[in-house]
Design a protein that fits this description.
- The chain is α+β, with helices and mostly antiparallel strands.
- It has one domain: Jelly Rolls (Sandwich).
- Helices cover 22% and strands 34% of the residues.
- The chain is built from three helices and 15 strands.
- The strands form three sheets. Strands 1, 2, 4, 5, 6, 8, 12 and 15 form an eight-stranded antiparallel β-sheet that branches.
- The longest helix has 17 residues.
Length: 207
């Protein structure tokens, strides 16, 4: 038995979170672009935010992977390999921006077999290769960077298996880890700016 989501109130000293936020701001704010959906689709009716990508070799990558592994060891016990794409998402939500209900790892995101009803040799080869190497998102990670007093709205809301919605904590420095198949959303910002780091841990397809 496992919880759908868990979080850690890291209680990082304010100065430490300030260093993280300042480093990301100095190095990645100028690279933020309009956030896109899976498949590189832009749809502001579903997702309206900006983000930049942080490579996992950046020093914050080790901090994030520590909490992903800890959450997995203590709760999920999934077969994990690495952070998806070896990159993390540094996200900004400004006034009026939001992300509607979605999940990070539904069936639509997975490779679709090409050889069903088609015995083409290349289709068979593609399906075989995919079955051996495809990775799927299993755990989603969020770190709250902004002080909750600096913005209004923008809550991260998740939905449990019975359809009950609940909010993740807003405390600055909090790390939230949840099953990537879980429906979740970010409510519209009504004041200020919300910054976060998001990442996804991937592993072999479910068996």
């Amino acid at each position: 038995m496992a919880f759908q989501s868990i979080w850690y109130f890291t209680n990082l000293p304010k100065d430490v979170v300030d260093v993280i936020e300042r480093d990301l701001s100095d190095n990645f704010d100028q690279h933020t672009e309009e956030s896109r959906l899976s498949g590189n689709t832009l749809n502001k009716n579903i997702r309206n935010s900006r983000n930049a990508w942080i490579p996992t070799h950046h020093w914050i990558g080790g901090f994030i992977w520590h909490y992903i592994e800890r959450a997995n060891r203590e709760n999920f016990l999934y077969d994990l390999d690495c952070v998806d794409g070896e990159s993390m998402q540094y996200t900004h939500y400004e006034v009026g921006q939001f992300y509607n209900w979605h999940n990070d790892a539904g069936i639509p995101t997975m490779y679709k077999p090409r050889s069903i009803g088609n015995r083409d040799t290349q289709a068979l080869v593609d399906d075989h290769i995919s079955s051996k190497i495809e990775k799927v998102r299993k755990l989603s990670f969020v770190m709250q960077l902004s002080d909750p007093e600096d913005y209004e709205g923008g809550n991260l809301q998740l939905m449990d298996e019975e359809g009950n919605a609940y909010f993740a904590p807003r405390q600055r420095g909090t790390v939230i880890v949840f099953d990537s198949r879980s429906n979740h959303r970010v409510l519209k910002i009504t004041k200020g700016l919300r910054k976060s780091i998001v990442a996804w841990a991937v592993g072999p397809r479910w068996k």
